[in-house]
Amino acid sequence: xxxxxxxxxxxxxxxxxxxxxxxxxxxxxxxxxxxxxxxxxxxxxxxxxxxxxxxxxxxxxxxxxxxxxxxxxxxxxxxxxxxxxxxxxxxxxxxxxxxxxxxxxxxxxxxxxxxxxxxxxxxxxxxxxxxxxxxxxxxxxxxxxxxxxxxxxxxxxxxxxxxxxxxxxxxxxxxxxxxxxxxxxxxxxxxxxxxxxxxxxxxxxxxxxxxxxxxxxxxxxxxxxxxxxxxxxxxxxxxxxxxxxxxxxxxxxxxxxxxxxxxxxxxxxxxxxxxxxxxxxxxxxxxxxxxxxxxxxxxxxxxxxxxxxxxxxxxxxxxxxxxxxxxxxxxxxxxxxxxxxxxxxxxxxxxxxxxxxxxxxxxxxxxxxxxxxxxxxxxxxxxxxxxxxxxxxxxxxxxxxxxxxxxxxxxxxxxxxxxxxxxxxxxxxxxxxxxxxxxxxxxxxxxxxxxxxxxxxxxxxxxxxxxxxxxxxxxxxxxxxxxxxxxxxxxxxxxxxxxxxxxxxxxxxxxxxxxxxxxxxxxxxxxxxxxxxxxxxxxxxxxxxxxxxxxxxxxxxxxxxxxxxxxxxxxxxxxxxxxxxxxxxxxxxx
Length: 590
Description:
- This protein has 2 domains: 2-326, Up-down Bundle (ABC transporter transmembrane region fold); 332-421 and 546-583, P-loop containing nucleotide triphosphate hydrolases (Rossmann fold, 3-Layer(aba) Sandwich).
- The chain is α/β, with parallel strands linked by helices and 590 residues long.
- The strands form 2 sheets. The protein has a 6-stranded mixed β-sheet with strand order 6-7-8-3-9-10, with helices on both faces. A 4-stranded antiparallel β-sheet has the order 2-1-4-5, covered by helices on one side.
- Strand 4 and strand 5 form a beta hairpin.
- The protein is 64% helix and 11% strand.
- Helix 5 packs antiparallel against helix 7 (125-167) and helix 5 (64-113) packs parallel to helix 12.
- The longest helix is centred in the middle third of the chain and has 53 residues, at 227-279.
């Protein structure tokens, strides 16, 4: 799985191939110039000790002062170039990091948008946010510096290794002995710590989910005086994050001290063997100085492998979760037939459905929705009314039976064109954070301002919009919290009107409005009926009294159907509901 994750991450980086090549070039040059100072120090010592016999003296610069001036200019040039390439490498790798994160976040979110409604009902928004935001951002720390450090470490080993072999193969052997120990220790470290970082990411996901729930439900929290309960919930989740991090930190912090022991061996070997060789005249003092300095340059950067592998494991823990979400596939498969609405009717034929196996919600449902008619569905809470709408929008598939648009099974229709012909006004009203007109325009992004105003008038929203502080440009707040329930409902209806669908679904459209707003919605419905197929689910029977046909659901079955007058005269379930709502009866199981 690690290899698959690294390979997939590499494929995202490969999309930035030109930038990656530049980044590699800049990183190598940056490290080459960074390795030059020990050599410059050796040349300086060589000038002082050897004079005209020094390295620069051999190039024709005999005067020591001139040699030092040349060395000063050379030092300035090398340090300047090192700084330039350090800047270019940092900018390039960070840009690559941002590009990869953007592509990964975009691809994952696009896949999320295509998942079934069932997935979202089983996965909290806070947990999804943790993956789409926190986990993607976790990759940044590794992508920003990880590749750069690995390239520079490899360059260091190759260049210094070659230098050691050139000066003294014997010293090279002893200086390089710690490297296998460091590398082996790094791999063992990453293998051990991987599970600990997975625990951290899972704990953070739970914390985000609880934070999202507490903040989204702040009205409920405050109205029930449950601040202490929510605080305790967050403290518990945060404690788990802290504990998981403590568990990882204990191992992470132990890595570098252990590696330092191996480094000490390599440095001591160079110090002693090189020193003996210098005393015996096998190498000069300047060369001995260079060996000591570059030994540090060789071994100390290897300790950063621990940090790099640490960042890598954190990144892989997040990347696995991102990949799992990105590769999640919807269970509902798209059809191939373009939906052009209906010519005659929509038919439910012996439909059975359950959210959980062996717990049926709909049983043998058969009903007919005629084109241009108003079809109402009523029943007590939990009878399956809203489930019918979800099946009609193909948010779920039936367990058995068929839903036919004329003679075409809904499963054969393209989901996009199917939903394009349907406008939904749900009891769960969602307004995006933005202006009033931006929320109405969500129904048709190409609509003109005139068309938006017309939709507002048809939904009788225009009057209250003109009374708002900034009228149509008033920001409604998150989920429309700055508006009343009735105002949000009217905007929701205006949005559906602007979409101008052939089929209009009203799912408990008046469940959270006052009598005046209910009357306004009813007037809007009367206007919308002509030339449009309306499906209305309602608790308030007064809003569907004039429907062409009313179906009564009880415990997932259709127990009655007919017009309002016919059902009242039956004096059964519907009549009982009507009597309760009109005050003729006080008690009823609703």
